[in-house]
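Suppose a colleague, Dr. K., hands you the sequence of a protein chain of 127 amino acids and asks what its three-dimensional shape might be. Before reaching for any lab equipment, you can write down a predicted structure in token form. Begin with the sequence itself:
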Amino acid sequence: MNNLIFFMLLMLCMAFHYLPVSWHEVMGIMLLVPFGRHIYRCRGWWKMLARGRTVTSGMGLFSSLLNVLLVADFMVVVVSGILVSGYLFREVIPLELRMNITLHQLHVSGCFRLLPVLVKSGHGWTA
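The predicted structure, expressed as tokens, is then:
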């Protein structure tokens, strides 16, 4: 159920052209809940990765690399989204950061790099 909520929120956030900006920002923050829950439920995998006990050949290596890159990219998207926020964090983030075109481009392009989640999710919805 967690992965279904995560997937649906991600797709809704990526449909930002059809949503008010404030909804997009709220749903982006809401994505942190299923993301955090997913990372917590996969903590055994992260422990094995830290110990160097993950599969080091073929698809296992590719899958491990994909997972680490997806987590890094998700964090970049969230942080850049907070920094360019025009509604939720307007009072906290300075105008110079909110209007920074590089941060906007990083946020938008990072979302499209998250599309491999669709490929990963096809391998099973266990976590």
